[in-house]
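Backbones bend. To wit:
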Amino acid sequence: MSAETLFGIANLAVMPGWMLLTFAPRWRWTQRYTTFAIPVLLGALYAWLFLRHSPGAEGGFSSLAEVAKLFERPELLLAGWVHYLVFDLFIGSWEVRDAGRHGLPHLLVIPCLVLTFLLGPVGLLLYLILRVTLRKVIDADEAL
């Protein structure tokens, strides 16, 4: 299967998770899908891509130039993309769980989810600002 085909499959696999987080955040299967099913499946894809295509690849992780060289291989670029898909979905799932624990209105969390989906850290930043603003608490231990 080509890297392009796997790219499309991976993108489609996370979409139901984002829809569930947005429209059915309290449904029991939402968290199972977004924090277990998809991360396990895409994590396995990531591991396979990285282990199969990184031996002998030029580049590395010591500099931006080395990362760029590493990602010249489509399969390793795809592994990097899958990495983002899994972690962004996992963070979105955490945002929903955390908001529920702290009684934050889900309608206010939705823009954070959209930004987490599109821009990862920006969505997390917005969520953390929302959380601090509404709860007036900054406690890193509580976030876990």
